[in-house]
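Reviewer 2 asked us to include a model.

Predict the structure of this chain.
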Amino acid sequence: MKQSAFRPRDLLNKEVAGICGVARLTDKARAAHAGEIGSYKYEANSKQDMGILSFLGISAEAFQEATVQIDNDIKLGSWVLDNCGRSDKDISTFNRKLRAWWQNNMPRDDFSKRRRKLAEKDENRSLFWFFPSAWLWKNFFRR
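Predicted model (structure tokens):
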């Protein structure tokens, strides 16, 4: 039996309409329509999907129909924005809340922890590049 290679985009991806989760929802809707969704959940079986669709105010059926008819992410994003009736402020708030939920509820593995530590070090390095006095303060004067 051949195993499906389907993998939707990340929940925080904002490529479609600038809204977190819509790109992932798009991939899952198209895969469900084609019968290739595999072990992923879509629509009523997924709390994430229902939360995103609820925010958009678009039914799962209408969204799936649009994703099948519109194969371009930019055009689909325009369709979503035209049909959701949400302001830029609403979208920004939703994105911020979804990102916070994701960071607080997703399991942390060693790779993710290590990646975050490296990112913090890179931020510190760039700070010292632009402010050499900060590096001097950190390494010599705080002892």
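The two ends are 63 Å apart (CA to CA). The chain has a mean pLDDT of 81. We have added this to the supplementary material.
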